[in-house]
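Before a computer can learn anything about folding, someone has to put a protein's shape into writing. The outcome of that step, for a single protein, is printed below:
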Amino acid sequence: MRLVLPNPGLDLRIPDHEDLDRMDKEEADGRPKWDNKAQYILTCVGFCIGLGNVWRFPYLCQTHGGGAFMIPYLILLVLEGMPLLLLEFAIGQRLRKGSVGVWRAINPYLTGIGVASMLVSLLVGLYYNTLIAWILWYLFNSFQDPLPWTQCPLNDNGTGFVSECQRSSTVDYYFYRVTLNSSTSIADSGGIHWPVVLCLLTAWSVVAICCMRGIGTSGKAVYVTAILPYIVLAIFLIRGLTLKGSFSGIKFLFTPDVDELMKPTTWLDAGAQVFYAFGLGWGGLISFSSYNPVHNNCVQDAVILSVITGLTSIYAATVTYSIIGFRATEKYDNCINSNIITLLNTFDLPEGNITASNYEAAFNRLNGSSPEIVLGLDIKTCDMQTLLSEGVEGTGLAFIVFTEAITKMPGSPVWSVLFFVMLLCLGLSTLFGNIEGVVVPLKDLNVFPKKWPHEILTGITCIAAFLVCFLFTLHSGIYWVTLFDNFAGSVPLLTIGLFEMIAVVYIYGIDRFNEDIEFMVGRKPGIFWQVTWRRNSRLWPRCRTPVGSTGSFFSWRVSQVSQCLFMHYVGCFSFAARKRHSK
């Protein structure tokens, strides 16, 4: 017996199949349409493939044992991401509405799901476009040789370099002091940093222009913003593979630390990354799918996008780790050479007596013969694995690690321009979906008069967002960006996804949903979709129990993870297979 909660008036709130066919033929619903299927897929790809694929996924791999993180990521991508992706595609295409309109049509009490999606899209869009402003600043300053973060600036009297820069590094100084003029804490606002304001104004202006007429303009822009990053990544991969030490980084990425699989945080971060990678719970995918023809094959779209998203994450991580391997090798060689010079000068040895190839043997020999002298020297510990595992989270991976590596490449300004153009395209294509996930719900909620054109709504939204973003232009702006990044799109997305699944399975009705997909696609969803939809709606509350008020996301036990992800699904698939075979 299947549980379906009472939902009176549902048939009156949604069009039936005959009405959908009539509306589709007459284009009577008044919604915009995609020019072609490629435009729709590219828009979804651009929305899903964002800045997180370049710096968040590689950082999580680095934190959780390299290739070991990919195992739970790919498992949850299939068991968690794909079912919810198809759910959002299908429900948007069936009900022909945005995120608020869809859930309100199912039941007025579910309007809060759409409002929550809208708020998450807005909050993520605020700090996301701040990152784009920083990217624009670096892009504008990349058209000079040498790059401004290559060396420390002179002090005020021109007699030496700035001491703060010499105590840290050139790339750190340029990011924290020149770009952001960062304060010491979030409590010290320090006033507005006007260069960031100008870049932020440019960023919001570009977004407003591209989204002015909805998919009519953003759908054209994705031909550049969605395709160009793949071309640039390919260029960087080819260049990265020619750099010394690149294969060390790639080997580190794909060498799994199996012990990480036993840690709950590995699975938690993998689950959160799936939501980030797909853009689930933001409302943008629901809006995009509502512009499709009624009989579009949304099941095929979900599979295609899942494959592209998973492969792109691995592809981008490979490119990133080829650069990380090069950077680590440079640091390792500098460390060894520094120690060699120290030993040569201390023991008055001829040049060339100690080289990188015989350093270990020479060091052990000198340490054995004169241990008291070697002990007093400033000999650094040079460990390649330590250098490879140095985690730089989020923005630091792009603005510190990559910029430092780029300075060591011949023709560094060209590589810098290519890199930040790629980041700009990745950020913009994601923001198109974020703005869609805000403007369409505002129209569904009748916040603005219905007669107002889409251009006015988009303009007002972007202006209001720009004003709020002044918070990120303060000297304490980086702390606010980190705060939004940590909390705006983590627990809220998982919570929204849970309630979306429950709403469709138990309130809209899974049997009705299957009939809708059969009507749109021509066949009912298979066993995989049935099991994951029905079981995820029961599984998530059991496996993800919030604990604490400001602590970790959720408390998981490894035994729960194993039971929920493996035994539960194995049993369900076996039962479904036996049931189908008996028929």
